[in-house]
Amino acid sequence: MAVKQPGETISYIVTYLEMTARPATQIPPTPAGPLLALIRAEAPPAHYFLYLYRAVGAAFEWTDWLARGEDEVEAFLSDAGVELFTLFTDGWPGGFFVLDTREAGVCELAYFGLVPEARGRGLARWLLASAVHGGWDRPGVAKMTVNTNTLDHPRAITLYQWAGFAPVRREEETRTLTRPRQV
Questions:
Q1: Of the candidates 28, 25, 23, which has an alpha carbon nearest to the alpha carbon of residue 123?
Q2: C-beta separation of 127 from 87 below 8 A
Q3: Quick one: pLDDT at residue 97?
Q4: Chain-centre distance of CA 56, in angstroms?
Q5: For the packed helices 156-163 and 124-136, what is the interaxial angle rounded to 10 degrees?
Q6: Which backbone phi and psi does 48 adopt, to 5 degrees?
Q7: Quick one: pLDDT at residue 114?
Q8: Most CB atoms within 10 A, among 59, 87, 101, 166?
Q9: Are strands 143-149 and 106-114 parallel, antiparallel or unpaired?
Q10: What are the residues whose beta carbons fall under 8 Å from the beta carbon of 128, sequence distance 6 or more?
Q11: Which residues of the chain have pLDDT under 50?
């Protein structure tokens, strides 16, 4: 594998996935071990979303929201169709997800992930199942969507498929790196 440096442009593949029916499976039992709480943020400030976004996505080149103005972030977060949920594990933010129902009949799992210190602890399936069931609980939802790409965690697409999402299309994109990356 070659190491690409910040400023270099790389190609990656975005996979779009959909789920057109509520999964028949229930949310798995809460993982044993850490004290967990899943809390919906009420009117979260931009800096809180950006903290979670960086904490989860820095290693995966999540940079899009970092280039936007605070007003745009605030407008996104204050929209009634956007809900941010934080997973607290042993009292600290271990991950988050965002449900976006601004499009009629669709709930997009707009963001989902765990911070590095929470990965490998058996939390991802439980959190994803909670997000999926929460999405289907929104009024009028006929379809859930999510996308991932080859820069994300290598098991992301497998996890989404485990939850019931199916790939519907792929697109090639390019991005300028912000940190060194093996490709």
A1: 28
A2: yes
A3: 98
A4: 9
A5: 50
A6: -70, -50
A7: 97
A8: 87
A9: parallel
A10: 97, 112, 159, 160, 162, 163
A11: none
